[in-house]
Amino acid sequence: MERARRSVSVADIVCHGLFLSLLALNVVRTLRHAMWRDELQIFQLGRASGSLADLFHHLRYEAHGSLWDVMVWLVTRASADPASMQVMQAVLAAAIWIVIYRWSPFSRVEKLLLLAGYFLFFEYFVMNRSYTLAALLGFGFVAIRQHAPERTVVAWLLLGLLANLVMHATIWSIALAIVFVLEQRRRDTAFYAGGAIYLVCLAFGIWTMIPAADYAPWGSDIQFSWQRLYHAVANPVGALAPVDPNRIGVLLLFLAGWADSVPSFWNPTAVIWVVSVAQANLDHPLRLALVFAAPALLCWLIVRRPLRLTEFALTYAGIVAFATLWNFPGTAHHHGILFLALIATAWLARAYYGSDGWSVWTLRFVLIISTVGGVLSLASETRPFSQGRNASRWLVENKLADAFLIGSRDAQVSSVAGYLGRPVYYLECECNGTFIIWNGARQSPLSTEQFQARLSRRSNLPRGGPRS
């Protein structure tokens, strides 16, 4: 008996040590991460907003919920340094890890695999985006459901906040809310009051996502087509297989010293490989249908309960419908919401009903694939994620930080403006700015002739003048 206690104690120490080591590693990665356009866009937007009214006015061209933006805006009231947002990001991401490690019903091995997976190890930890809050609020909700089911108002509030991030998180929030209503047997005054709070938060979240009339990038052509549905297959594959098999080969060559290029680590997905190998396309609709059905089958093998499967299926169907109708297949950070939904479903199934061999090994199979993507993300430490920070430092070192700067393309140059904390003249809108206003006045990309004409107008040079 004493030997058994000692072995368990040693195992606990090893797991705790590994958890703390990985957590410390990722905090360092986050703080040294060179942020890119999408991360700095929100920080610059918050820094340029003198009030919450200004902030919501600017959000008309962002087409997403406001919770993350408000939190970043509050950070900018205390500091104009973008690194302050990274500190907040590290705290939120660490909170996710603690919630999972301390309160999830998974085994220690499963917890470590989950935390080392691509989404929680890189995309929702190192990157400064609202998706981190989605993971924290979603897992916070299922933790409340498991450990404090009587706190229904808190549970509803978490779902309401989850609905104020991005549309994918809003869809997940609605799915969780529907099953919450179906599952909750004790419906007292607190439950209905919490439900009312959720509906108000949901309505507010959807309202803030409605873009301005001249919002340009997406959503102007809402319709169904089979081609769009085919492109939406990126969502389930990207969520469950955040690994590009071709990148593994490049990594092995790089580690062996047979290749000089650092392997790509961001936005990994096996969708091209899966579609090619399975020939899952519009010419083979049955095979394409099987690829779409695979996540639901995996979920059933893990949870084995109709209500839990319904919870995941509602999220899955909603995200695929959104991707199809709005022609927005998304990238890894969007796809990860579906992965979070699967984990949350598995969490409650394990907490309520336990597990058997099929359930355990199906879940571990999904986690191992994600962990491969997480390990590959360590390649991010071999090169800057964005050159915006280096460019801004060069300008400062060469005493050019206050010089008149012209930039194109604006979406790439805006990260330099973010680190310098000052406007740049963007040729795409022919205007001074820091963050990008995604409206019809902005034209991108510019042709060579347009670039030369706009540069000449701003520089007061003849059209055929000096070229850089």
Into which percent range does the helicity of residues fall? 55-70%
Strand order of the largest sheet: 1-2-3
Mean pLDDT across all amino acids: 90
Task: Name the beta content range.
Answer: under 5%
Please count the helical segments: 22
Radius of gyration: 24 Å
Order of helices and strands: HHHHHHHHHHHHHHHHHHHHEHEEH
Q: How many extended strands?
A: 3
Structure description:
The chain has 22 helices and 3 strands. It has helices spanning 2-32, 37-48, 52-58, 67-78, 83-103, 108-115, 118-123, 131-147, 152-162, 167-183, 189-209, 226-231, 234-240, 245-255, 271-278, 285-303, 306-325, 332-353, 357-376, 388-397, 410-420, 448-459; strands at 406-407, 424-426, 431-433. A hairpin with a 4-residue loop joins strand 2 (424-426) and strand 3 (431-433). Helix 10 runs antiparallel to helix 17. The termini are far apart. The model is unreliable at 461-468 (pLDDT under 50).
In brief, what are we looking at here?
It contains 22 helices and 3 strands. The protein is mostly helical and 468 residues long. Strand 1, helix 21 and strand 2 form a beta-alpha-beta unit.
How are the SSEs ordered, and which strands pair?
Layout: H1 2-32, H2 37-48, H3 52-58, H4 67-78, H5 83-103, H6 108-115, H7 118-123, H8 131-147, H9 152-162, H10 167-183, H11 189-209, H12 226-231, H13 234-240, H14 245-255, H15 271-278, H16 285-303, H17 306-325, H18 332-353, H19 357-376, H20 388-397, E1 406-407, H21 410-420, E2 424-426, E3 431-433, H22 448-459
Parallel strand pairs: 1-2
Antiparallel strand pairs: 2-3
Helix pairs in contact: 1-5, 2-4, 2-21, 5-8, 6-19, 8-9, 8-18, 9-10, 9-11, 10-17, 13-18, 16-17, 16-19, 17-18, 20-21
